[in-house]
Amino acid sequence: MAAATELTVGQVATRSGVAVSALHFYEARGLIRSHRTSGNQRRYGRDVLRRVAIIKVAQEVGISLAEIGEALASLPEGRTPTREDWNLLSTAWRDQLDQKIAQLKKLRDGLTDCIGCGCMSIDRCPLRNKEDRLSAQGPGARRLLVTR
Amino acid sequence: MAAATELTVGQVATRSGVAVSALHFYEARGLIRSHRTSGNQRRYGRDVLRRVAIIKVAQEVGISLAEIGEALASLPEGRTPTREDWNLLSTAWRDQLDQKIAQLKKLRDGLTDCIGCGCMSIDRCPLRNKEDRLSAQGPGARRLLVTR
DNA sequence: TTACAAGCTCAACTTAACTTGAGGTCAAGC
DNA sequence: GCTTGACCTCAAGTTAAGTTGAGCTTGTAA
């Protein structure tokens, strides 16, 4: 079957660069979808490649799978997403990115200030104070995605 | 004992804003150190507050405990670290921060480009290609710290 | 001197995002 | 028709950074 539109897991894996197990995982999480052959094997439409691409990019930016899932859920159910649909996602995430960059900059400047000030008095350290306002969170492992 | 230099875990916890369990954990990881009373209770020198502050700031910047541990290990063993010692750390971490910011910017700009270009051809997407060069990592859970 | 808060240890649990493995099925080439 | 590689499911393991809990000891204020 030369130019079949359907892709197997293995094909999606090689073309997208993510492991088969990860694709299974994304599907279980509802991030991608497949239908099955009579022999119970997954078959994917071509747009799954774009979805996976988006997933990876968003992850790299530090967006969690849960958030990505929500965003992807906003895509139209029936039809293949249009360029407009994708644009909405991109724009939203670009804003998140901008915020993240701004936050890191603030942190960097704080660090720079600390070098200047010597800052041996922990109680008055601008970084510490900034950080104190952020404390008091729930249990379990927080901060679980590194923007590498 | 009014102005004792020694601090208990509880005191360090309240003053630094991290849980007692976290302090135990840091100590097990070798990030901080204590000595024990005759009754086997921990006592900390005052500089532990500064260490903990540094740990938290570095984490916020997205540095893993392992890396922080290495950096802290570079501090002088015997004497209380001088301002110079801390400066070395700060500078190194500021550089990391700068890199991280640059990376995020590149990603954001790539995303913006993608909006412009429509980018329906995944294979030629600048984001995907950039990301492909970064793939092929070890097993287990990577990307484990979010810069919130 | 007796409560009771604060400490101690050690094991098990948590979350995210997957991977690994066992045990079994499907499909395609020779 | 059979072997081999790709698939399938489901359970359990992994990492980071802690938290939670049980069971037991310390220290201190009334």
From TrEMBL, chains A, B:
Pfam name, any one = MerR
Q: Which domain of life is it from?
A: Bacteria
Alphabetic keyword roster = 2Fe-2S, DNA-binding, Iron, Iron-sulfur, Metal-binding, Transcription, Transcription regulation
- HTH merR-type domain boundaries: 6-74
Q: Which GO terms describe its molecular function?
A: DNA binding
Gene3D superfamilies (alphabetical)? 1.10.1660.10
Record keywords: Iron included? Answer: yes
Tell me yes or no: is Transport among this UniProt entry's keywords: no
The record's annotation in InterPro entries points to:
DNA-bd_dom_put_sf (IPR009061), MerR-type_HTH_dom (IPR000551), MerR_fam (IPR047057), Redox-sen_tscrpt-act_SoxR (IPR010211), Tscrpt_reg_MerR_DNA-bd (IPR015358)
Enumerate the NCBIfam families for this protein: SoxR
Under the heading PANTHER family, the entry gives: REDOX-CYCLING DRUG-SENSING TRANSCRIPTIONAL ACTIVATOR SOXR, REDOX-SENSITIVE TRANSCRIPTIONAL ACTIVATOR SOXR
The entry's protein name is DNA-binding transcriptional dual regulator SoxR
